[in-house]
Structure formats: structure tokens, C-alpha cells
């Protein structure tokens, strides 16, 4: 039976690939620029509409990142970080989001002179509130910016170690410009993190978004990670696909992002069917929803429009995304139960 949009709206979802700074909607961006007296660059679009229009015409990842870093410059106070994350959580909850593992880019803030306490404090407040008021489970993943020197990545790990120890941050990732900054540059950062942070911390990295499948292979080899962010180019390498399936390495796929950043011409070129055929686990995510034209449900709907998946396939995707989540077995059981309930409710409606 073909899945409908009503079913997809209600299907319990987990998001593993969303940059909180990438949830900054143009309206909030201008509001915060005003509230904090921030002068945006002269060539920055002047209105919500002009900015939205600009977001529809990214040439590539770097073209997006250039705007993304300007965008985050309006985030100054703890309240700003809280407001940003809360707007994302509230909106996504209405789209069936039950569990989120959200990225943030501390170097993008600390390097502008923002106190790390304000960044993490604001995000934490919104996440705790979502757990209480929206019934979501939440985790925070700190990313290192790969265009900055690894020595600065190391210093970032050291300065955020107290928050890992308090259990406020649960994972470490690697993002920003990919091709010119290969994974091997960050081997020592990941080694240091594994030897000094609590053993419960999980590790991931962006790989195979603009770069080829060899960056996925090499990231797995040198960074000791258990998940790959994007990884869509893995599909070009059958041996790697087998390895991902055997080792149960989840790919956090972001279809609308891939389209906006010209990784693919169309969502139908995201290798969803190949991942299903090879048994490569993947989740579907929004990446930077304010910039790429859609939140989590919009990404599910875009995949459905392109691939016409059936209910069984969606249930499998939803359950795989629970299995790949960094949460307790107890919470996983709850999430599986919610998915089973959704499946039952949907089959009785039909
Ligand atoms: O899609 C992305 N890729 C790399 N870095 C990023 N930072 C925010 N979004 C992205
Ligand atoms: Zn990303």
C-alpha cells in the first residue's frame, strides 16, 4: 500500500542531522539583527523575501556556508540561542518529531567573542523545555569546523569537556567545507576526544556530501566514527555499501539539502532505493531547514514524491532511524511502540 502524506505526518520521526544555526529563519534573523544592533554586510539581502530568494540559488556547499556564517552573527545572547532552538523544536514537533540529535557549531560563536556558556546554556534551555512540554527526547552534538586548524578543534574539545562531563553534550561531529579538508586532518582531534571525554560520547562526521565515497571510507578508517552524515556518495561504491550494511553504520541523509546545494539535480537522484536494496541503514533529515526549504516532514514528503514508497518501507525507515539513535533502550522501546501504533491506526483507517 502506498504511503500517504497523512500517514507520513503522523509517523514518529527521529532527526539526526540538523544544525541548530541552520534553523535560523530569515524573519528571526532580521529580528535578532535589529534586537542586537548588528550591521549585516552591505551586499546581504535586505528583506525576508530577498533572503528567501537568495536561498533558492546556492551554487554549492561553500556558497551556502558563506551565508550561513553571516547568518549566525546575529546570535548574541543566551535568549537568542534559546529562541532559535525553541522555534525549531516547536515547529518540528508539529511534524511528528519525537527524538532529535542536534548539531551546533561552537567555533562559529566563540571565535566571534560569544561566551560558550551562553551558547550551550541557551540551547540546553530549549532542549530541556522540549523534553518537558513536547515529550521529545533530545541530544546535542558539538561539531568541529573542518576549515579551521585542527589545533583549534582540539582547544574546542578541551573547553567543552566540562559540558560533556555534565551530560549536556552527547556526541561530536565534523562539518563545514568538505573537499579541501580531508578527514585525516582531524584524526588527532577524534583520538584526543575518545581518550579524554566520557566513554558514552558518540562520534560522527560529515562525509560523502560533495566529496566522493573515498571520504566516507577514510572517515570510517581514521576517525573511529559510528555514523556518517550525508554519505550519499557511498552509493557509488558497492564494497563500501556492503561494509556500511554489515557494520550497521547509519547514514543521515538530507534530501532537500542535497537538492539545494546541487549535490543532486533532483531528490529522485538521492540513492534511497539503493540504500534499501543493500540494507544500508539511513535516516531522513533536514540539515539546515531554514536555508533548504523544508523541515523534517517536508523531507519525508519529498522522498515520497520521488520514490512512492509503501507503508512497510516507511515503517522500516522509521524503525531504522530509532535503532541508529543515541538513546537508551527504554526510550527506543517507547519509540518503536509509537511507530507500531501509527502503523495500526493507519491500517484501520484504510
Ligand atoms: O550540509 C552541510 N555540510 C557541511 N557543513 C555544514 N554546516 C551546516 N550545514 C552543513
Ligand atoms: Zn550538515
From TrEMBL:
Cofactor: Zn(2+)
Record organism: Brettanomyces naardenensis (Yeast)
EC assignment: 3.5.4.2
Keyword DNA-binding listed: no
Residues reported in the UniProt entry to bind Zn(2+): 17, 19, 206, 287
NCBIfam families, alphabetized: aden_deam
Main localization (coarse): cytoplasm
Transmembrane domains' residue ranges: none
GO CC, one annotated term: nucleus
Keywords, alphabetical: Cytoplasm, Hydrolase, Metal-binding, Nucleotide metabolism, Nucleus, Zinc
Residue ranges of every copy of the Adenosine deaminase domain listed in the record: 12-341
Positions with a binding annotation for substrate: 288
Protein's recorded name: Adenine deaminase
